[in-house]
Amino acid sequence: EGVADAADAPLIVDEDLRERELADSPIEDFDEAVEHLWANPNASHPGGESHAEAQVRGVAAVDRLVEAYPDRHVVVGTHATLMALVFNAYDPRYGREFWTGLTTPDVYEVTFVGGEAFSIARTWTPEEDDRADADRDPAER
Prior knowledge:
The protein is mainly α. The protein has one domain: 3-Layer(aba) Sandwich (Rossmann fold), CATH 3.40.50.1240. 43% of the residues lie in helices and 9% in strands. A two-stranded antiparallel sheet has the order 1-2. Helix 3 (51-68) packs across helix 4 (80-90).
């Protein structure tokens, strides 16, 4: 919302960019449950969404944005798992290990050429935020 306000651009909410629903009830061992889904993308927990289903949904949402805003910069806010699944559709190197290394927040730039993902690059690191904090007056932190 803040980025849209700062850019005086419209805020568009696409529910297809929501996080993957792990299950409809609490999971006893989250790490084990997620590990199972990364190893078995078509599997799902009761009431949950498989990684394959979430990936198809997320890629479709990004495809719609690329088609609607060709040759434009678009800022997308989403959740880590969905972002990793979408990136994984473009490049299989973006898998579980990538997902476990994400920070919150994290910022990546995906460049599309001819409607296809051409490059994916991290454009922000937590250390940059730490350096910015160090330069600010402590009263403003």
